[in-house]
Design a protein that fits this description.
single chain, alpha+beta, Chorismate synthase, AroC fold, five-stranded antiparallel sheet, four-stranded antiparallel sheet, 33% helix, globular
Length: 390
């Protein structure tokens, strides 16, 4: 069973990420992991925090001599901004006058709900953990999952479909998505340059008006075989697992698989992917004219590309704050403001890749098993042969 979790606060000393269940013998590539972290930090509309942090993963356990050893992997990501917060967020009692309470909760953030839940008199501890800074740790774990999936010839990447009111209407090919991921500079991760410039204009408007802007990213898993997930139980359905994983990301408020939203208002004859057959193609010769199902039918992968979209609300920290209420006086005030981004859709896409990769890696290990990479690959190759002989 692949299990993972993270620890750490946005302005604390470090983020820590844990992953248990990877087979022994998987090659660890530090350069690949750190590039994934770099990709998450890019994008037009990011705030001042990204000028401070230069994320890199420091492996504490579970990898030796460049290979996983089958034991839990612990990774640490240093927060460089900690130097500016040591007195505000000490582990010990510290000096109360140097603490930085958040006295007016921000609409749209976890501030008020978290303060009520944990009986805090301000929202500082809430925002420190609820912050999207935590997704950096998940991105590092997702990079490990990607390294595992790559051994099965499964790749996971993303692109941006929508920023504000601007949407790229056409489908984007896998080769175009791969080209985006290799770019030395990332603007808004849109496959169409003209549309990307219109997206940039949306961000510029939000920046000038003290606002923020959301959008839609699409994560694509290329090369996933049929048979991942199951229809046997509700929590074994791959689409349910993917939806939960992507929805768990900060600011994601809706998840779509394939043409899910447009399919709801279309006739069945226009939605369901007709089946053909051509010997020697795909995993078992079966073909599809379209992929409206997003690679999943009945909770099970069907051999087509898996496509998952995350709908991201605008960041809730605004330079032109909305109305709030002071925790102490209960008087109407403006919401708190801290250094923040204007647009994070490309970064959310990279975090979305991590969550999809972790979900698919777990599903693959549940199906193929193996305590070592040779054993897992043997089992996987046996399954592929079964498909070819079907």
């Amino acid at each position: 069973m692949l299990r993972y979790f993270t620890a750490g606060e946005s302005h604390g000393e470090a983020l820590v990420a844990f992953l248990s269940g990877l087979p022994a013998g998987l090659t660890y590539e530090a350069e690949f992991v750190n590039r994934e972290l770099w990709r998450r930090q890019q994008g037009y509309g990011r705030g001042g925090r990204m000028k401070i942090e230069r994320d890199s993963a420091h492996v504490l356990s579970g990898v030796r001599h460049g290979k996983t050893i089958g034991t839990p992997i612990a990774m640490m990501l240093e927060n460089r901004d900690w130097q500016n917060w040591k007195e505000a967020l000490p582990v010990e009692t510290g000096e109360p006058g140097k603490h930085k309470p958040v006295s007016s909760p921000r609409p749209g953030h976890a501030d008020l709900a978290g303060a009520l839940k944990f009986n805090f008199t301000d929202a500082r501890y809430v925002l420190e953990r609820a912050s999207a800074r935590e997704s950096a740790a998940r991105t590092a774990l997702g990079a490990l999952a990607k390294l595992f999936l790559r051994e099965l010839e499964i790749e996971v990447l993303s692109h941006v479909r929508t920023v504000g009111e601007v949407t790229l209407e056409r489908e984007v090919s896998w080769s175009q998505i791969c080209e985006l991921a290799q770019q030395p500079e990332i603007l808004l991760s849109c496959a169409d340059p003209e549309t990307e410039q219109r997206m940039k204009a949306e961000v510029d408007v939000a920046l000038k008006t003290g606002d923020s802007v959301g959008g839609v990213f699409e994560v694509v898993a290329h090369g996933a075989p049929p048979g991942l997930g199951s229809y046997a139980q509700w929590d074994e359905r791959l689409d349910a697992q993917l939806a939960a994983a992507v929805m768990s990301l900060q600011a994601v408020k809706a998840v779509e698989i394939g043409a899910g939203i447009s399919a709801a208002r279309s006739p069945g004859s226009a939605v369901h992917d007709e089946i053909g057959y051509s010997e020697g193609t795909g995993f078992a010769g079966f073909t599809r004219m379209k992929n409206n199902a997003g690679g999943i039918e009945g909770g099970v992968s069907n051999g087509e590309e898996i496509r998952v979209r995350g709908y991201l609300k605008p960041i809730s920290t605004l330079r032109r704050p909305l109305q709030s209420v002071d925790f102490s006086s209960r008087e109407v005030v403006k919401a708190a403001y801290e250094r923040s981004d204007v647009c994070v859709v490309p970064a959310a896409g990279v975090a979305g890749e991590a969550m999809v990769a972790l979900t698919l890696a777990r599903a693959a290990l549940e199906k193929f098993g193996g305590d070592s990479m040779p054993e897992t690959l043997r089992n996987y190759q046996g399954y592929l042969q079964q498909l070819r002989n079907y």
